[in-house]
Amino acid sequence: MAVLDILHHPDPRLRCVAAPVETVDGDVRALADDLLETMYASRGIGLAAVQVGIAKRVIVVDVSPERNAPLALVNPRVADARDPAEFEEGCLSVPGVYETVSRSARVRVEALDRDGGEVSIEAEGTLAACLQHEIDHLDGRLFVDYLSRLKRERIRKRAIKRMREAAA
Ligand code: ZN
User: Fold this and answer.
1) How far is it, in rounded angstroms, from Cα 45 to Cα 159?
2) Bridge partners for 107 per DSSP
3) What is the distance in A from the centroid of ligand 1 to the CA of 26?
4) pLDDT 10s digits, 47-73
5) pLDDT tier at 168, thresholds 50, 70, 90
6) How far apart are the C-alpha atoms of 156 and 26, rounded to whole Å?
7) What's the 143 CA to ligand 1 centre distance in angstroms?
8) Which residues pair with 84 in a beta bridge?
9) How many CB atoms sit inside 10 A of residue 58's CB?
10) Average pLDDT over residues 163-167
């Protein structure tokens, strides 16, 4: 297991559309383990492979307060979404930014688990928001995309400034 480097907005690699996983093999399980370790090390509640520069449809989440309910999903997709709701969100790829995003309060997500078995998850609340957020990453979408143009531009400029300062 390894803690991987997380890409930061506006890195163009965060915009790639990830490819479906054809076989859930040892490599995919190792990737899921690395994503979990990276997520826990960063105190996040979710992480997508795209965020570490790997364009495969793999996500991990854990919204439990005890940090003991890891979920690794391969090829996840939102099969059903109901009831609009607003969530306060942040993202490990957009550090320091927290904004309200409109999503669905309840979703059903279909995916493969780490053994390649089919799973269907009924989620609501924070887990529903987190799953929608992570699945968005697999399509190159960030939560800031849902904000107004003015806010997006301000966040992008701040991110570029932060990156320049980190490089200097
Ligand atoms: Zn994110």
Assistant:
1) 21
2) 81, 123
3) 25
4) 999 999 999 999 999 999 999 999 999
5) confident
6) 37
7) 7
8) 104
9) 29
10) 89
- What is the distance between the alpha carbons of residues 143 and 163, in angstroms, rounded to a whole number? 19
Beta-carbon contacts of residue 166 (< 8 Å; ≥ 6 apart): none
Kindly name the residue from 86, 134, 153, 165 that is annotated as catalytic. Answer: 134
Residue type, 156: R
Token pair, residue 24, equals 């859930």
Phi and psi at residue 13, in whole multiples of 5°? -65, -20
Å from CA of 60 to ligand 1 middle: 11
- Secondary structure of the chain in the HEC alphabet? CCCCCCCCCCCHHHHCCCECCCCCCHHHHHHHHHHHHHHHHCCCCEEEHHHHCCCECEEEECCCCCCCCCEEEEEEEEEEEEEEEEEEECCCCCCCCCEEEEEEEEEEEEEECCCCCEEEEEEEHHHHHHHHHHHHHHCCCCHHHHCCHHHHHHHHHHHHHHHHHHHC
Global pTM reads: 0.97
Check if 134 is active-site. yes
- 59 forms beta bridges with 48, 73
Dump pLDDT digits (tens) for 76-105.
999 999 999 999 999 999 999 999 999 999
